[in-house]
Each structure stands twice: as C-alpha cells, then as structure tokens.
Amino acid sequence: MRTPPEHAYPTHWEADVVLRDGGTAQIRPITADDAQRLVDFYEQVSDESKYYRFFAPYPRLSDRDVHRFTHHDYVDRVGLAATVGGEFIATVRYDRIDERGRPASEPADEAEVAFLVQDAHQGRGVASALLEHIAAVARERGIRRFAAEVLPANTKMIKVFTDAGYTQKRSFEDGVVRLEFDLEPTDRSLAVQRGREQRAEARSVRRLLSPGSVAVIGAGRRPGGVGRTVLRNLLEGGFTGRVHAVNHAFPEGDSTLSAPDLPGPGVPAHRSVRAIGEPVDLAVVAVPAAHVPAVVADCGEHGVQGLVVLSSGYAESGPAGRDRQRELVRQARSYGMRIIGPNAFGLLNTAPAVRLNASLSPALPPAGRLGLFTQSGAIGIALLSGLHRRGAGVKGAGVGGDAKGRLRAVASDGWAGVSTFVSAGNRADVSGNDFLQYWYDDPATEVVLMYLESIGNPRKFTRLARRTAAVKPVVVVKGARHSGSAPLGHTVPTTRIPDATVSALFRQAGVIRVDTVTELADAGLLLAGQPLPAGPRVAVLGNSESLGLLTYDACLTEHLRPLPPRDLTTAATPEDYRAALAAALADDLCDAVVVNAIPWVGDEGAAEEDRRDEGRALAEAVREAVAAGGRAKPVAVVHLEIEGLTEALAASGVPAYPAAERAVRALAEAVRYAQWRRQAAEPGRVPEYEDIEEAAAGADIDELLGAVNGGAVNGGLVNGGAGDTRAPAEPGGGPVPRSTLPTPDETARLLARYGIAVRPTLPAPDPDSAARAAARLGYPVALKTTAPHLRHRADLGGVRLDLTSESELRRAHQELTDYLGKAEELRPVVQAMAPRGVDTVVRAAIDPAVGAVLSFGLAGAPSELLGDTAHRLVPVTDRDAADLIRSIRTAPLLFGWRGSQPVDSAALEELLLRVSRLVDDHPEVVQVDLEPVVVAQHGLTVLGATVRLAPRPASADLGPRRLPAY
After folding, report:
1. What's 239-266 look like in SS3?
2. Is the pTM of this model over 0.90?
3. Cβ atoms within 10 A of the Cβ of 546, count?
4. Per-residue pLDDT at 261
C-alpha cells in the first residue's frame, strides 16, 4: 500500500468553541511540534482513562506513540486537539480503514475514531465538540462512516457517541462494544448540535451576567475616570457579590480603597488580579489599550471567566486597532474567557439576587421584562433614559426625587423595566446572537429589544431570532441600513443583500423590525405590558373628535381595521372613560383599544397638582376597566399634555404615547407579530415530490463543475486524493475554483431533474433557420433576441410574438436585423408561444453570509423599476410559497384584478417549492433565474432559464459549532 503524502496544514479546521459550562476552547489539528504538549497532557490523564483508551494499563507514551499521534497526513490520518491556555485538554483522531479494519487510503470510506479527555475537563462537553469537528473533517476527506470500539464500563464515551444523533449500529464482541455510525447529518444530529450550541452559549452569557465576584481593573485612587466610575456604579447598584479594585499603582500588600464617592466601608484594593486571594468571575477592564494584553494574561492565569473591555483604541481606530482587536480575542479565548467589547459601555443585570451594574450607566434601572442589546453606548443611554422618562418601572402614581432616585425605583409589577442590558461596543466576541441564545429561555425576559449596526452571521441570527420569536417578541432597529457598510469597529463579513431583503427575511423569522430607537421603545412597552391582539380590529374612543379621526386614519395607514371612533366629548369624566373602555373590551367585534385624551376644557387655571390628580384619576379609570376585562385585549393611550398620566398608567402596565401615529404603529406591529405567532404554531412543510431526481442532478453538477475546474471542485485540491469533490471550498487551498454557466440544454436538463420544464428555443441566425425551427416547434411562435443588452426588453423591439406563418416570421426576422443590428450580435431564437398569462420572475441566489434566498416578483417594471420583489430563506415551506406570491404589492394582478381571470397560483407555488428544493439540496447551485415565467389560468410556462454553478460555498451556519473569527 502506498504511503499517503503529507498535506499542507489545514488552517480552516481551526475553531474556537463554547463548551457546556460556558467556557471556551480552541480546536486545531495536531502537528509534529506538539510532541511535548501531548506528553504533558497524557501525564495529567488518570490511569482509568488511559485504560479505557488503550484497553490495558498504559502509564506512558513511547517515543513511537508520540510520533504516531503527532504526525498526520490530514487525509487518511487526522488528529485534533482541544486546547486551553495553549495546553491540550483533549484529543481525537481517526485512521482510515478498509473492510477488514486495516489501514487504508481512498476509496475506502470508513475510519476508526478514538478520544481521550483529561479527567479535570470531563463533563464539559469537550468530546461532543471534538466529535462534531472530526466528523466534519472526515466528510471533507471522503469518509462516510466512523467505527469506534469502547469498553462497556466506559459509559461516558458510549454516551458521547449514542447522543450525537447519527444513524448507528451497535454490537458486542470479545468484551468490547463496537459502534458504527454514518456521518451524514440527520435531522436529529442537527437538532442535538443546535441544542448543545444554545445551552453552551446561553451558559457563557449567564456567567457574564451573574458573577459571584467582580474585579474593576483600572479603578483610580481618586474620583473620576472610567474605572472609578464603574466601581462606584457597582457599589451604588447594590451588587450582591464581592467587588475588588485593581490598579498597579496601589500599594503592595492588602489594602482598602475608600472615599466619600464610594458607598460602604471600602473596597479591597490589589495591584494585580493574581494578587486577589480568591476566584474572580468577571473583570471590567478600563486601562489604555496598550496595557490590555498584560491585563488579559493576568486574568487568564487567575482563572477569570469573562471580560468587559471598556477600553477604546481598537478596530474603530483603523487597521492597527483592528489587528489589536483580533489579538485581544485570540488571547482571551486561549484562556477560555469570553469578551464583551472592546469599546463597550458595559452590562447590567437587575435580578434581585445579582443587581449587577458593570457599566457607565449612573444607576441600575428598575427590574422588568425587557432585555436590551445595543452595539452603541449612546443608543444604550438613550434607550434607558427614554424608558425612564415614560415611567417604565415607576412605582405608584407620581414621580418624585432626583433623576437617579427615580431610575432606581422598582416597578410595582415589573412589566416595563429592564431584566438585562448590554452595550457591546465593537462586539468582537459576544454578540447579539449569544444574547438571543440566553434570552430564549430566560424567564425574566419577556421582550427582546435590539439595536444592531451590523450582523456578523445573518443566517444564524435569523435562525435564532425565529426560534426566540416563537416564544417572545424580538424587536430590532437596524442602523447603517443604506451605507452598505458596518461601523469601523465591527470587523464582520460584508453581505451583498439589499436592506429590503433583510427586512423580508426578518419578517419571515418573526422579527419586528422598526426604523427608529423611539419606535423600538414604543413597541417594546406595548408588548411588555399588554397581551397580544387576536386580530386587526381596533376600537377608538376619547374626548377629542379630531384626535379620534387621526387615530382612525393611522389605523388605515397601518392596514388595521378601525371601528368608527367613539367621541365621549370634551365633558367626559374618568367614569365615562371607564364605562366606554369596559364596553369596548367586552365587544366581540374588537381586538384592541386606543384611548385618546386631551386636557379637560376649563383647566387652564388649575393648579399643577390638580392637573396631576386628573391624570391619576383617568389612569385609575383605565386600570379598573382593564382589570375588569381580564387583560384579554391590548390597550394603548394617546394623550396630549396631561400631567402625570404617563407615570400613573405605567403602574398598571398601560403604555402611553404623545401621538396617535406612534401608538397605532406599535399596535400594528403587535398585530402582525401575533398573526405570525399563530401561523408559526402550525408551520408549513417542505413537500416531497416523487419525480425529483436528486442523485442524478448531483451527478450532472459534479460533471459540469469538474469540466470547468479540471476535475476538482474542492477548493483547488487537484490530485489530492481528498475524495469529496463536493466539500466546501476554502481560501488558501490552491487556485480559486471557477463558477460556470451551463449551456441552455444543460440548464434545461438539470432543471428537468427537479420537474421544472423550460420551453425549448432553437437558434435562428438567418430567416431559413428560423423557418426550419418554427416548423419543428409548431406555429404560432415568438422570435426574440438573446443579446444581453436586449434580453427581456420587448419595449425595445427585441421580441416579436404570435407569428402564425412562415411569411410573418421571415418579415419579423428581417425587421429585427434591419432595426437592431446584425444577427450574430442579436443572437435571435425561435420559441413556441405559451398560453397568455402574467409574466413573473423567479430567482434564487446564495449570499455568503445569509445563505440561499428565493425571490419572486412580476417581470419587468414592477420588480426592476419599483423593486416590488418578495424574498424568503431557503428551504421554503408550502406556507412560505403561498405567502411569497401574495406579499408583493402587485399581487392583485395574479388574483383577478379588474375582472381578469386569476392565474394558477397552485402551479406557481409548486414551481417556487421545486426551485427551493434544488438550491437547498445542491449548494453548488449558487444562482437560478427563471424569466419570464408566464402563469396562465391553467398551468405555467418557463420561457427563459439560467443557472450558475460553483463549488459548494462555505456556510456560516452549517457544519460543526464554532465561534466567529473575523
């Protein structure tokens, strides 16, 4: 047997992962330079674990063992290690074998796999993470099945294999359990992987939000400065854990930092984190960027679990800062720590058992149901202040004392305060995706509010947001929508998809997207304090006819169904309001109520306290009516300059707005979200079509890509023996693989594999050829140019329809060449006429960050000029397909507008589903354009089709778990 050649070190196999306990580790290939690390690692493994690994006492590794376990060809023999602090904590390896269990090379597609985990790190999910990564490596190298032999007593390792979700066979022979499992991902293995991902990433955030001890590094000896400010905020917020101040300028030995600006008897002060004689869970770093590496090393050596880096001077400052930021993340992760920041504002946790204010916010906000994530400190301050001004979390009917005292007030029922808050700055590590994982099953958070300027992994964000939105609202405002670039500090992959597509994908995921921070708070307050509406019917009542009409118009603008406004007249009393609101809430024809109020006539001379009393009386009337109605329908109040009403309403959970348009917009978002929730409870399905030839289509794709890439499509691995020619293309692995546009015949054959018929065209370079083509296809025919500048441009005369005879066809051909140019430039073709209908366009394209997106619109001006196109993420369900064709503004043209015949929408939906299946089954299909698709009363016809193929793109949300590396 030949000895496989050594291959280049596969850098793309390196990955940072979050473990079960929330810590991090790096997974990387083992190299020849790791010999001493392997020996040191093995010495830390117990005799029992060694016995389980080698089935015999094996106290130490021989030189031959060390060489074998550190020298790999990265094809038939692969070893991976999990490291923390640069040292091994676990290893896994596979060796390709033949059917007799002997060492082998391609085309053998089975390998034997074995693990060894240091005892101190067992139970952290290290082996499960390594299994995901070694399985992905094996698939890339053409291995389709793993075999493992395990002693029956090694129950932990048996559980790692059996819990992974792969299709398995299990046998027992000669006192050994033999497990064989296919490496092809299954629905169960993917569900297991994502469940582990959610639990691990949620735990990593929980460790940041609920520390038992906090060290503030950079806390000065005198008042002022960022570090000293955070230290004061921690103490004033009532943090329930231990607090330490760290500054290299403090005196040697144990000391205490105390001053008038710091509450309490004082804070233990230390020159370094390592000088602290107890564990530290969270470190807040507020030192110049040049000193941060030494601080991170100090924290890592002491076992700190997470960092909040407030320091600036990173990616937001330019290329040098971007490199500094990458090194910061690399260094922190090497110690198993996660980072919020750098350039962060900080984080808050209002839980009574924690009361953490590790931020620059002057006070801990009231506890409540809102979880807030921002990528901007300024926006974070604005959100917290805006919620405070509107009475969020204020107890009782009035507000007194200074601003800081009011902000500390506790909500009577906690409906509109904050559960947790993070302003992540450059969010080089911990991102909005991590907090979505945490908030998904956090009982203290009922509404998620997010301000995002960039989305590092949109595909994962959409997946996590959809899952979270199924149980609690997710409201997002997206900054940097039109610039097409993220802020300088956000070193994330760019995405080419337009903002309109992002909005469509958000809607598909159930995300409530708003345009401003004000609307973010408006929607959040309504969703936190009120039940979801059962429908779009809105009752409007109040003491101002004009304000009622404005509310009515706003409802129509937002596509709600308002009932005729009920005018209580300016003489209405609080009792009148109570009775009218109670009647509206009891009305079965009403799903929500908007209450309008203006100051009572004749109040100009009333004292301020009297006006406050009137506001409190109205709020009490609203509260009584809502309570009597069982809080079954949402209520919002619009008022103009009524003193004390907002604060008084806040105590009962009813949001107040200064303008009808704002209240109605928030209510409309709640209506749309409630409708999405009802539909999500009964999700659609991806149909199975018996005529789809998936394997044959895959063979066609491999043949077409192999022809253009010299027989290899695996990132340029020509003659590498890697086996899987359909593995992800990786940068740096050789020449960049090229994409290809199949010929029309090849395109038609590929689409036909998925039941998509393309009406054939025949070339017509001259009148005689055109006549022969028409005779073959049958009259009537169309004559059209295929030149790129005239394609689909009937308005320029490049298409002639309904030609019923040879003479008409010859005349049309002559006119085309006379008016538009030579035949070789125009490239005319003949095509049989299709039944009359509505011209549409169906497209699918793969964005490297988002994945496959299916798009639909009407052909021509509606989609090209007006941008009237709808989008959905692939795979598309039958419900998605039905919604897709109905969500464009010009959809009435498909359903009998102005007495026309409705088109065959069922056939159109089926076409969309088949295209979705094609690009989902074969990621090498990176683009599909079907234009035009003529949809008639019965059936449809695809008149034009192009497909682009490229080696399978690497996906940001498929494959084994890994943290992003920007």
Report:
1. CCCEEEEECCCCCCCCEEECCCCCCCCC
2. no
3. 12
4. 80
